[in-house]
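Homework help thread (please don't just give me the answer)

Our assignment gives two proteins as sequence + structure token strings and asks us to describe the second one. The first is just a warm-up. Here they are:
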Amino acid sequence: MAVRKEIDGSASVPEFYGAELRYQREAAGLTLQMAVEGSFYGVSYLSEIERGERRMPAALARHMDQVLKTDGFFERRCEDVRKARKRGHAPYFERILEAEKHADTIEQWAPTVFPGLLQTEAYVRALFRAECPFEQHEKTEEKVQARLSRASLFKDDRTTPAYWVILHESLLRLPILPPEQMAEQLERVLVLGRRGRLLAQVLPWNAGAHPLMLGNAMTLTFADAPPLFYTESQHHGTTVDDPGLVKRYQRSYDLLRAAALPPEASLAMIEATAEDYRNGKQTR
């Protein structure tokens, strides 16, 4: 029997919304199955909304208002929850922010910066302060904490997504932080690799011509939805959901994977570089 998860409605706007939804459903004497009947959504989807783990679609919100006779409450407030979820994130990243929580696999290519899922607090803050040096401290901290929160994907009790990342060697060798903090950034990757939460490869700096030279890349696959591809530049991101085009990007990623060092050799390189930072052999 599944263990019922208690919801702390004070933790966040999504959890407050989910707690109220569960309260109204149970007060009406409805099971999850009874509540979703007549909608296009399943029991697990509604359960995840109640736990504050998934966004409420407007169509489902209207359905729940009708079933629970809540006078449009959940439809009116689902936009508030959406805004709360994306706070601290760029608007163009919203779709991927939601999608990565439900992905079976995430495959990522990082040629210029460590991926957001792997960044330490010092690394995140350095990136934001470099881009927006005159921004209010509170605004920067909101973005820092929002990005760090994405790492909940790697909690010990999760088995998905399976995360595969390819890093360019320059990320290891060209520090943007003091040596000790660069060592911590590299060790973040090492810890997750040793725990079996990711497979990391390093593309050597002298690998020559290779696929995806024009930018970063992320591909996400799902058990119950078509795959997505995502790429971004400094102030813009693009999500691709055309199956044929996503397949071409997946093939490019496979070719890039073949050009990179094997995972074991890659972790050894990352570990050696982290040690060099700690011993003063790699300097800023």
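The one we have to describe:
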Amino acid sequence: MKSNFDEIVTRRGSNSYKWDAAKDNDVLPMWVADMDFRTAPAIIDAMAKRVQHGIFGYTKVPQAYFDAVTGWFQRRHHFTIQKDWILFTSGVVPALSAVIKALTEPGDKVIVQTPVYNCFFSSIRNDECEMVANELIYKDGTYSIDFEDLEKKAAEPKAKLMLLCSPHNPVGRVWTREELQRIGEICLRNQVIVVSDEIHCDLVYPGHTHIPFASVSNEFLQNSVTCTAPSKTFNLAGIQVANIIAADEDIRQKIDKALNVNEVCEINVFAVEALIAAYNEGADWLEELKIYLYDNYVTLVDFFKQYLPNLPVLPLEATYLVWVDCLALKQTSEEIAETLLDKEKLWINEGTMYGAAGERFIRINIATQRSNLMKGLEKIRKIYG
């Protein structure tokens, strides 16, 4: 392996949201979804070259940017995207907010599959819509979709959008083609547009394949909006760049207007350079990263089996966010998170951040050096082992 993911990179004192948000410098953060690894060398080199130019004026997004996006998704995900379908913005959350604003009226309903990424809730609320939960079914240590309930929720007159988290954060599922097919058919029947957040699409592990929702059929392509970014894949959240893919011209024009109204229709010079380098030259680094991340997951699973066998770790099909069932502890997820932070200075996420369906669970970010991972696991063992 060319990249040394075991190398400790000091992030505290770098204005890192993950590491500098805690008042206590002894806190080990395994919460917010960014990684503790340096990004791919090609990205660093591209940005360093741009710095040397020394002028950072208003930025025109070049053809090479669109070529990088379309080439990546064709090669990696067999998803053919036309340049004209792409709208760029500063992040997937601003993208989701703009899409909701563009395609709903205040009081409309937006379906989400809970437990789910917490910013879905705020984006819906901020656009004055109503969140409707199609709660995932948790059974035998994994999650599945309640299609009967989804049909009922989609049939409600004010249901206009479904926010699909694919791959799913926090439960770690990669939806199969059959599952996507059923979602798409239900939404088509009920005239509900699917907005697919696919930010974790590149972090999928062996035995699983990410299928872009819009690639399943032309009907789904025309009835959907896809939000993507290199931020999770290449640890570029602070660079602030994302893309919205909308094949339907009417839908795309409405979103473009919302992006301009929200003033999130521009990206910066480093975002352009970073994305181009990531998608054109970052594939080998990504493959090494995925091996390291999955080894971290296996390390965590083995540790829990040995020392915390009453806490089931759910299968991780994608992402670097591990979902753990803590029912046996007979504490709320918030109490568990507070206990670990107060007594062991370990910061993880309580499951209820992701909706009421997240009660009894915690989320652990394993995208860190293995030595940090082991420190975090020992802290959990000390309290609950």
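TA reply:
I won't write it for you, but here's a hint about the kind of observation we're looking for: The mean pLDDT is 97.
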